[in-house]
Amino acid sequence: MTSPSAVPEEAARSIAPYRRSIHRVFDGRVREHPDAVAIECGERRWTYAEIAAASHSFAAELRESGVFSPGDPRERGRA
Length: 79
What we know:
Layout: H1 9-15, H2 22-32, E1 37-41, E2 44-47, H3 48-64, H4 73-76
Antiparallel strand pairs: 1-2
């Protein structure tokens, strides 16, 4: 196995985005290319902006119904 220090700098830069969480990578794509097609299924296409808007709306609905992310300070007060 190759140690991290043995990986050429250029190769390390090319894989660096994949060391971030998927939602951070996705958020970067939304900022850089909001109107680019992110998903295509048959005739239906969704842009990064459309998916982001839908996911934010869904997350808000979950929060309103009392569902919180693990580690959310609001979660601590619930039994």
